[in-house]
Every structure is written in structure tokens, then in C-alpha cells.
Amino acid sequence: MTQPTPAPDAAARDLIAAQSKEYGQYVATQDIYIGNALAYREGDPVPASNVSLHGYDKNNQVAKTGTKAASAAEKGN
User: Rounded to two decimals, what is the model's pTM?
Assistant: First the structure.
């Protein structure tokens, strides 16, 4: 018989919350490449730290989640 999955401990909950915050703010509005490598597909979540590091927001390559542009990108994916 299988055992139920135990509830995550506090450290795991903190990590899940941090990842949700990092990946839950921006969505790619187009395919984003770094060099020749595809980094994010249109509609994919983009980490907030990469948005500020690479200037994706200044180049209109991402949209804040919950906006019309983000919804359109997510539907296009």
C-alpha cells in the first residue's frame, strides 16, 4: 500500500514561495533568445531576476502577469 505524501516542512514551503515569487511576475510575449539559444518560449514564465538582468522589460519581450499582453502571450503558447 502506498503512503500519503508528507506535507512539506517550513524550509520547503519557503523555497516554494520564493520560486513562485521569482517565476510568477513576468511572462514572455515572444520567443526570447540568448545568443542562438532559445531561453523562453512565448507564454513561458520568465524569472524576475532575468528580466532586470537582461532588460527584457525595456525591450517589450515580457509582460507583467495579469495584464492583457500576458494573457495574449499565454493563449498564443
Answer: 0.78
